[in-house]
Amino acid sequence: ALTVATVAFGAALSLPAAIIDFSTDPNLADDWTEYTFHNDNLITPTWNSVDKDLDFVSLAGSSADTSVIGLYLTDAERSATDPVTLTVKSFTRTTGSFGQVGLVISDVTSPTLLGSEEKYEWHIVDFNAGKQLRLRKDVGTGSFELFSEAFTMTGSVKLDIVRVGANYEFYANDVLKHTASSYSSVVHDTLVNYQITMGGDGLATATVDDFGIIPEPGTYALLGGLFALS
Predict the structure, then answer these.
(1) Contacts for 179-188: CB closer than 8 Å, 24+ residues apart
(2) Residue range 82-114, pLDDT digits in tens
(3) pTM for this prediction
């Protein structure tokens, strides 16, 4: 029994990070990495201990001060087939011409807006007060893939990036919005890093929740069976 329990515990430790609901302090200062995704870092993420979610405040004041940050759980990676998710509870821009909040998967831990790395950006974006869903693919090599759908953000929007075979599927509130096959399957296998991003060129706020990897049901079944056996 002790041996099986030890195996089960080891399996639990080896599981990928699951969805983080921010019900407890995520210890942003020590356990997370924040990096400048684009230009000056004028954005502050804060754990909201009352609402149990994550708040972002952007102080970017002009197009010259455009700032986008990335935030991720340090050393966390997804497998090539792990779905990732983020719920945007609110998003407001009061100055500037655009703001954004969403998910990025990439082959590096700190992608840039105009870099040569391989990545997908799945965002809620507000261009001139018109909110859209935007998918951007690695623009550094000149390849650009765009899908947008204007919508009014009332309530929360759940963003999911799901690997299906050789392709990726992008969902908003569990509705398929786009299927991306523009990268090769080999490149898709390298997109093991996942981040929250937020930014813009004006004053903006965003609140997000339920960020991370969606574990496959079989993983829970296996772990449950090991503990039951022990």
Answers:
(1) 180/120, 180/135, 180/137, 180/145, 182/137, 182/143, 182/145, 183/118, 183/137, 183/138, 187/107, 187/118, 188/80, 188/163
(2) 999 999 999 999 988 889 999 999 999 999 877
(3) 0.86
